[in-house]
Design brief:
The chain is 30% helix and 16% strand. The protein has a 5-stranded parallel sheet, with helices on one face. The radius of gyration is 24 Å and the shape is globular. By secondary structure, it is an alpha/beta fold.
Length: 506
């Protein structure tokens, strides 16, 4: 193939559509699951929904079908993605049930060789669309494996599990906990929440969209654009405050007022009040989470879960709870792309080895030493205030421009220059140093080893879009025309001797 895309979530389906529109017909999307959907296929826990307004959580070229709520739920978002894939012909290039195990760049053939559960594949260009919300994180708690009852992670929800009349313990207080706790507490006889760190919450104006309004928006592109622009501006305003921490005070005041109005009990309110600046961790929204914690059968344990013994749970502060069911709302491994351990670059090292736990890329998309490799939603591309799809679409414009330049120039490969990548990332880290993401006084998944921020984009979303759409050929080293394909499998063996195949690009 000319292009192989790994993953069929919003990034992978978007890549299929955008690159086909750009004239790339020799393209395959490989998805290890039985259907597309990514995180919106996997996360089906009760209450799962979008945390930015629905009008922003859709492709700009395919407006939503008339969302039923201001913040659409998981099923509706998953349906939107699948229907958009059908509408734009993405299923024609999709192969489900194919897991990519390893990928190697061959400098002699100037191609990527892929080992998959469906046999070998080969591609001139490889696009990783595996996303950061993929590998569930299980806490390291002594005795967890011996819990005397069902243990379910929110990202792998078991819908056969009946919580009616059960004693349920939830571990975690992040985005998934804020959604799942209100959704399940009414069924449980008792619910215990182990909260290591309290979260800043703003009210969530999540109301049903009247059917007449939804029909009008579907028929009125101008009104749709105006609504999207207004909600985008609101989210960007929050992002602006995160980049200028002195402006966060109004957000903090609004969050404290929301907490005070929702929780009358002073002790509970004190336990739910963070001691860091809003935005240091992902800012959450909910109008149901705080009220759920005030119910008489719900108990907050403002401590980490420290040990499990049968069905007895012990917090780090010594508090105890007994539970029949354990729900892990502990998020994902966010610091590294899922296939980083299996993608081998020009010198044979993997992305994981090159990064050493601190991912970085040029424009969050290309990594030196990995020719013709493009990462979607790579390092330092996201912020805590707007839709990830804005970044994905901007990246896809960059990828399309790179492929066009490869074709027009008769090149076989491009590889971002080391000095360009280093200068770019130095500028990113310098800009991040004054943002609330870095200076807000908390520990978050934004920060990798040594406190380096590997997640956030430090400027406006508008600047991100402009920067990624301005393709600069001088930022890359280009190789000449590719040699003829040697056959359906790599030449020689496939052992770990990449130095034998190194070749200086002309």
């Amino acid at each position: 193939m000319e292009v192989v895309v790994i993953g069929a979530g919003f990034s992978g389906i978007g890549a299929s559509i955008r690159l086909r529109q750009a004239g790339c017909r020799d393209l395959l999307v490989l998805e290890k699951a039985a259907e597309p959907g990514g995180t919106w296929r996997d996360n089906t826990y009760p209450g799962c929904a979008c945390d930015v307004p629905s009008s922003l959580y859709c492709y700009s070229f395919a407006p939503g079908p008339g969302w039923s709520r201001v913040f659409a739920g998981q099923r509706e978002i998953h349906d939107y993605l699948r229907s958009t894939a059908r509408r734009y012909g993405a299923y024609e290039s999709l192969r489900c049930g194919v897991e990519v195990l390893r990928a190697r760049w061959d400098d002699r053939a100037r191609r990527w060789w892929l080992e998959t559960t469906d046999g070998p594949y080969s591609a001139a260009v490889l696009v990783l669309a595996t996303g950061p919300w993929h590998r569930p994180r299980w806490p390291e708690v002594p005795g967890l494996g011996g819990f005397a009852g069902p243990v379910v992670h929110t990202a792998r929800w078991d819908h056969s599990l009946d919580l009616t009349g059960r004693h349920v313990a939830v571990v975690g207080s992040g985005a998934s906990a804020v959604q799942v706790v209100p959704a399940i507490q009414e069924r449980a006889a008792a619910l215990h929440l182990f909260q290591r760190t309290p979260q800043w919450l703003l009210p969530r104006p999540d109301v049903p969209v009247p059917a007449a309004l939804a029909r009008w928006l579907r028929r009125s592109p101008g009104a749709r654009r105006a609504l999207r622009a207004g909600q985008y501006a609101l989210q960007e305003g929050i992002g602006y405050a995160f980049r200028h921490p002195r402006l966060v005070r109004p957000l903090q005041a609004a969050a404290l007022l929301h907490l005070r109005r929702s929780v009358r009990d002073r002790e509970l309110r004190r336990a739910l009040t963070p001691d860091y600046t809003p935005g240091c961790k992902r800012l959450l929204t909910s109008s149901t989470y705080f009220p759920a914690l005030t119910r008489p059968h719900v108990r907050l344990h403002p401590t980490a879960l420290a040990a499990v013994d049968g069905n007895r749970l012990t917090g780090a502060d010594g508090s105890e709870a007994r539970a029949d069911v354990l729900v892990l709302a502990t998020g994902f491994h966010m610091g590294e792309l899922p296939l980083a351990h299996g993608v081998h670059g020009r010198d044979g090292r993997t992305l994981r080895e090159v990064w050493g736990g601190v991912p970085e890329a040029y424009l969050g998309t290309t990594v030196g030493g990995f020719p013709n490799l493009f990462l979607l939603l790579g390092p330092n591309l996201l912020a805590g205030s707007t839709s990830a799809l804005t970044a994905v679409e901007a990246q896809l414009d960059l990828v399309a421009a790179a492929l066009a330049h490869l074709r027009r120039g008769g090149h076989a490969s491009l590889d971002v220059r080391a000095d360009v990548q280093a200068a770019y990332n130095a500028a990113v880290q310098e800009a991040l140093s004054t943002t609330v993401y870095n200076s807000g006084g908390c520990s978050s998944y934004y920060l990798g080893p040594g406190g380096r921020n590997t997640f956030c984009w430090p400027w406006s979303t508008g600047r991100l879009v402009r920067r990624l759409r301005r393709f600069d050929p001088a930022a890359y080293a280009w190789s000449g025309a590719a040699p003829p394909l040697p056959g359906p499998t790599p030449p020689g063996d496939t052992d770990d001797r990449p130095a034998d195949r190194r070749e200086t690009a002309p």
